[in-house]
Amino acid sequence: MSRLMGLNTLAYMNKQADGKVDQKTLLKEISELGFTIVEIRREYLTEMDTDIDAIAQQAKRLQLDVFYSVPSELFIKGALNDHLAKYFSETVALGGRQLKLTLGEFEQLTPEIASALEKLLKEYPVHLTIENDQSVQKGGPEALINFIEQVKEKQLDIGLTFDTGNFVYIGVDPEEAAYKLKDFVSYIHIKNVKVTDDGVVLSGLKTGDINMKTVLNVFPDNIPAAVEYPCGSGEEILSNIAKDFEEIRSWQ
Questions:
Q1: CA-to-CA distance for 247 and 250, rounded, in angstroms?
Q2: I need a surface site. Which of 31, 93, 94, 130 has the fewest CB within 10 A?
Q3: What is the rounded CA–CA span in Å between residue 57 and residue 209?
Q4: Superfamily for 5-71+83-100+158-179+186-250?
């Protein structure tokens, strides 16, 4: 079975000198490259309602599954983020089937919090997934396991997004983390990084320190994955994405 592959629009972050990414214009190209999933980034939506509507229509026509990446946390000071319903609503408006957040300041999944999450998950036909961020307290394997085990006890449909590169920022080996978390992971971010004298920096698929093939092979093929790193600049982006896509496909 071939792993379903997606492209996070972060791949295009260096396409324009001003750093702006017009996501609604990229979907046809992403589909033609062979991806079946596009991961839309909320911070790249410049005209929220217009962009969402255009992306939803185009993705439906191209039969692309839409995942939605929101740079926000599930928990703020131990309580649920007040904007959760808005993020779920935006995901539905996009025609999306998955919403990604980071964990935030999680303390305990109280009955009240579990009930509020259950209500949201029933109201919106969206899979919620939590990504490891670049901090030990909010994105380390132990913090994620503590959260997801409580989630499973409450029988809530929440999974983890495993970001390969983010573990390097906190000094955790991505392969070791993969073995610890693989039973809870529902999505993978393929992101390579390199440790330099100036700190950890984003890199290309094969120029970073992570053996991506080894890490991906920890997870079963039915877990989708998305390319999530800058794929060059200007006109070279398209060819770089195509080459990396074929490289990843060759591992399966």
A1: 5
A2: 93
A3: 39
A4: Divalent-metal-dependent TIM barrel enzymes (3.20.20.150)
The residue assigned the tokens 């962009």 is 51
Q: With 0-12 CB in 10 A as exposed, 13-18 as middle and 19+ as buried, what is 233?
A: middle
Sequential pLDDT tens for the chain (252 residues): 689 999 999 999 998 878 789 999 999 999 999 999 999 999 999 999 999 999 999 999 999 999 999 999 999 999 999 999 999 999 999 999 999 999 999 999 999 999 999 999 999 999 999 999 999 999 999 999 999 999 999 999 999 999 999 999 999 999 999 999 999 999 999 999 999 999 999 999 989 999 999 999 999 999 999 999 999 988 899 999 999 999 999 997
* Helix or strand run (H / E) with residue 104: strand 96-104
Question: CA 49 → CA 93, 97, 164, distances in Å?
Answer: 9, 18, 32
Report the amino acid identity of residue 148: I
Quick check: 200 and 210 in contact, CB under 8 A? no
Burial class (CB in 10 A: 0-12, 13-18, 19+), 150: middle
Q: pTM of the prediction?
A: 0.96
Q: How far is CA 161 from the centre of its chain?
A: 6
The domain segmentation of the chain, as residue ranges, is 5-71+83-100+158-179+186-250
Give first-to-last CA distance, the chain, whole Å. Answer: 8
